[in-house]
Amino acid sequence: MPDKNMKFLVVDDFSTMRRIIRNLLKELGFTNVEEAEDGVAALNKLQSGRFEFVVTDWNMPNMTGLELLKNIRQDPMIKDLPVLLVTAEAKRENIVAAAQSGANGYIVKPFTATTLEEKLNRIFEKLGL
Amino acid sequence: MSDFAGMEDMLQDFLTEASDLLSNVDNKLVDLEKTPDDKNLLNEIFRGFHTIKGGAGFLNATEMVKICHRTENLFDKLRNGQMELDASIMDVIMAATGIVREMFAELSQARQPSPADPAVLSAIEGLLSGQAAPAPAAASAQVMPPTSPAAAVLTAAGVSGEPDWNALYKGLLGENAAQSVAAGLVASAAIAAPAAASSAPPAITSPAAAALAPAPAARPATKTAAAPAAAAKDTTIRVDTARLDQVLNLSGEIGLVKNRLTSIRTSMMQGKLDSDTIKQLDETVSQLDLLVGDLQSAAMKTRMQPIGRLFQKYPRLARDLARQLGKDVELVLIGEETEIDKTMIEDLNDPLVHLIRNAVDHGVDSPEERKAAGKPLKSLINLSAEQIGDSIVIEIVDDGRGIRADVIRQKSVEKGLIDAETANTLDDRQSWQLIFLPGFSTKEQISDVSGRGVGMDVVKTNIMKLNGRIDISSVVGKGSVFRITLPLTLAILPVLMVRLGEQPFAVPLSMVREIIPIRAGDVQQVSGKATMVVREEVLPIRTLASLIGWQEMSVPSFGILITSGETTFIMAVDSFIGQSDVVIKSLQDIKPKGIAGATLTGDGSIVLVLDMEVLLTMPTQETRATLFA
Amino acid sequence: MSTDDANADDLEALFDSIAGTNFTPPAPEPAPVSVPAAVTASGDLFSQLGQVTRQLHDALRDIGHDKIGQLQAQADKARNAISEVKQLQDALDSGSGKLSGKWQQLMDGKLSVEEFKGLVGETRAYLQDVPLKTKSANSQLAEASALDSALLKKLADSILQIEVKLVQALAANAPEAAKKAAGDVSSNANPDQIKTALSSLGF
To answer: Can you tell me the distance from the alpha carbon of B545 to that of B505, in angstroms, rounded to the nearest whole number?
Structure first.
């Protein structure tokens, strides 16, 4: 059972979406959530704060979610951070790209708290949390 | 019944943010028309639809998801170079954003959006599949060999191998069809007319766009339903967290100062009244004064929003209207970052929409006129905002035909708004102001595009409600300037405190030009009115006492030069106290004429705030004799 | 549009398969698999080979489900064919929707004779277009199903070949008694023959 106080970073350029994801996480009992509005801001936050989980949108200005993921995996300090990619389409090429870049999971918009929970639990299981 | 029980907050967030996003998309689209190959623009528009779609999905707004998705696909093809942007594709896209906006209106009434106009959807579909819809004419030419028995019968009556369409039509619909045919024709003609007008500049060529033509007329029901929703005020506000933090910090500091004051009070109550304690008290109070001032301005800033949020809706508005009128107009935005009180932003929308429509419709000259005048065919309308001192100045500047003051005067007389004698005394500036009189309209009929039946008088009333004013200047043949001057915020009003006898009154500082002493020797009688010459200008004197209907009690010693609209006069008072920033409280049940509200002074006494615009309409007649009686 | 509707479970499986293999998480280097120090004794080799072959054989039985693997490109081709057919269908669908809308307008008395004439033309064009479109759809589908079965056959064949080679290798290294019991394994042995041979070799 993962620690409910686990620190999440939710990354999306659309603040409504950040709020939605934050609320869904809250429903699941995760209340320690911070937000970033794009990949660049997220990377800065990740490098300076102790985050334990990243939920990021794919399509964002400045730095996309995929680029953020690649940057995370290349940074020795944060390379092991679990990353859940949020995508608008269940497109094969997207899923393949996400997996190949080292995403721990993906989730297709729109989703419910239950779906999010399933996705998170799969990742927790794989990581042995 | 709400379709969004339990999701109201999310819906509100979504509407606020997505509407901004859509306005942004609209603006980018207008830019895209100028630079159709700009990959960045294409990308950003793509992302706009993509983001709206994502949010709409969480609201289960499937119809919105659908149209955003299709449009997004279209942009995907455009940005990947699989398709090239032309006028007809642009029309389809513009129609799609129009539909999304209507859907926002439905959402704002807590209703799930109704399905998008199928004509637009299939137009997008057609563009996506890259196949033009079957051209009816060509198809019918090849498919009509009269082989079937039914066709043979019908052909008998027809001409040259063609079936008798009228007979067929009647056969299907019955003999009574004739009447409905006529009705149908009228209806389709009515639909065709605006469509044809809107297509004027770049001719619509593709069948996809043609299918689209009736679209604007197709959803009238939702449009009218949407109007009251749009009028409903958004009660939420988005505040930059840094600004909110500043408010919190200041509140914290004030808390500390309060603690210090409490402890000083305790010492003083215990009889400790030495100079040290007094000094401490003095320091602490000054500190509190400083902090409260800061808190006030920080709190005010949370209400400030960049005016760009409002402006960004207008380029599209101007573009659509211009196309409809067969004009080429670009609305240029300047100073979008200028911040203004959020409550004013909302109230400014209607007047600005009206002024922009007015500029495009009446201000801008027709292509023929421009050509004849040797002007560039494209007209520019600048919409700018700037903070000047404590005011926000918004200007709508066109390079059109200008406003002829003599025509305005003549029309006003014809319409019985003023008499011919008065008309002759008006200079150009005063004549232009006549436009704002109720019942004035330079066109015989209120044109369709100026919409809503709102006249310029309503524009002026709305601006004045915001404690602002509107001025016009114009050069015939060169263009016109509509300038709106507004206070920075409505919450705090800078005033000049004056006294009549012992009673203090507050005059909005924005109207005060200067304060001058009134000496009996300087006052002259001109055509029965008491006047004074100030800097070579002969100005009438009116006493505050007579304006508010008080008995003159003493000889006034000070005059305040007040400018309101085009009128300048000297208001005589007994004495003045000074300048102050006040928070106006409106008077609840009693509404004395000429009083805008009340406020409290530092010592706790009540001050009435004067409503100069109303007071000016009071008929008074001060003579030299009454002044110095 | 084309691939959006792919089955969510399939995609999940696809994600897992790639996330598991292609991406090596930056975890510590995996410990080397413990292999007996020297595989000199033919006995060791024999038993290892035997286990591998048994596993392979078992895996082959499940081959019906596990269809992606290295031949993904071909699978994609099949998928594309299906999505093209879907597009054809969608086009037919939207065409009929559009026409039926116009006919409704006609029946409501909202079309002029001229517009009605156009509508009849469009409808006929549409009707003529339908068989062309369905024909094209049919041939696409036929191609897709041919691709699917061809792909499976190819996969099964190549694995059977590997099995045969392994069994032959086993037999060559088997103790004499077992070797006799197993008999000769020909290059075109069928799965049953391989099963029998493996059992005789003691696996």
So the answer is: 11
- Residue B427 shares a structural domain with residue B481: yes
Distances (CA, A) of B526 to B533, B540, B629: 11, 9, 18
B392–chain C nearest CA distance, Å: 49
Mean of per-residue pLDDT scores for chain B: 78
Choosing among C15, C18, C22, which should be mutated to test the A contact, i.e. which has the most A CBs within 10 A?
C15
Interface A-B, measured as beta-carbon pairs within 8 A, has a size of 41
Q: How many domains, in total, are found in chain B?
A: 4
Phi first, then psi, for residue A20 (nearest 5°) are -60, -50
Is C113–B131 a contact, with Cβ atoms under 8 angstroms apart?
no
Name which of C15, C22, C23 is nearest A106 (Cβ-Cβ).
Answer: C15
Tell me whether residues A80 and C19 touch, CB distance under 8 A: no
3-state secondary structure B40-100: HHHHHHHHHHHHHHHHHHHCCCHHHHHHHHHHHHHHHHHHCCCCCCCHHHHHHHHHHHHHH
Whether the per-residue pLDDT at B179 is higher than 50: the answer is no
Give chain A's largest Cα–Cα span.
36
Query: Does B516 lie in the same domain as B573?
Result: yes
Q: What is the tens place of the pLDDT at every residue in B420-444?
A: 888 888 888 888 888 888 777 644 4
- Mind telling me how many Å the CA of A97 is from chain C's nearest CA? 9
* HSE-up (13 A, CA, CB side) for residue B618: 23
CATH architecture of C36-200: Orthogonal Bundle (1.10)
H or E stretch covering B181: helix B177-198
Please list the alpha-helical segments (H only) found in B342-404: 342-358, 367-372
CA distance C114 to chain B (A): 8
Nearest to C117 among B69, B128, B140 (CB): B140
Give the CA dihedral B184, B187, B189, B195, nearest 10 degrees: -130
Report how far residue B552's alpha carbon sits from residue B500's, in angstroms, rounded to the nearest whole number: 9
- The pLDDT confidence band at residue B565, using thresholds 50, 70 and 90, is low
Q: What is the CATH number of the domain that holds B115?
A: 1.20.120.160
The A-side interface with B (CB below 8 A) comprises 13-17, 19-20, 23, 57, 59, 61, 88, 109-110
Query: Domain check: are B326 and B212 in the same one?
Result: no
* B28: phi then psi, degrees, rounded to nearest 5: -60, -35
Find the domain containing B514 and state its range. Answer: 493-627
Q: Where are the domains of chain A?
A: 8-127
| CATH of span A8-127 | 3.40.50.2300
Tell me how far apart the alpha carbons of residues B29 and B23 are, in angstroms, rounded to a whole number.
Answer: 10
Domain-located, residue B172: no
Question: Nearest CA to CA, how far is A80 from chain B (Å)?
Answer: 28
Put simply, whether C1 touches A (Cβ < 8 Å) is no
Say whether residue C7 is in contact with chain B using an 8 A CB cutoff. Answer: no
Of the CA atoms within 13 Å of residue A40, those in its CB half-sphere come to 4
Interface partners of B (3+ CB pairs, < 8 Å)? A, C
Q: Is B60 in Cβ contact with A16 (below 8 Å)?
A: no
Tell me: do B279 and B389 sit in the same domain: no
Inter-chain contact C121–B136, Cβ cutoff 8 Å? yes
B416: left (phi over 0), alpha (psi -120 to 50) or beta: left
Q: Summarize pLDDT for B231-258 with one digit per residue, the tens.
A: 445 567 777 778 888 888 888 888 888 8
* A61–B44 C-beta distance less than 8 A: yes
Residues of B in Cβ contact (< 8 Å) with A17: 51, 54-55, 58
pLDDT digits (tens, 9 = 90+) for A8-66: 999 999 989 999 999 999 999 999 999 999 999 999 999 888 899 999 999 898 899 99
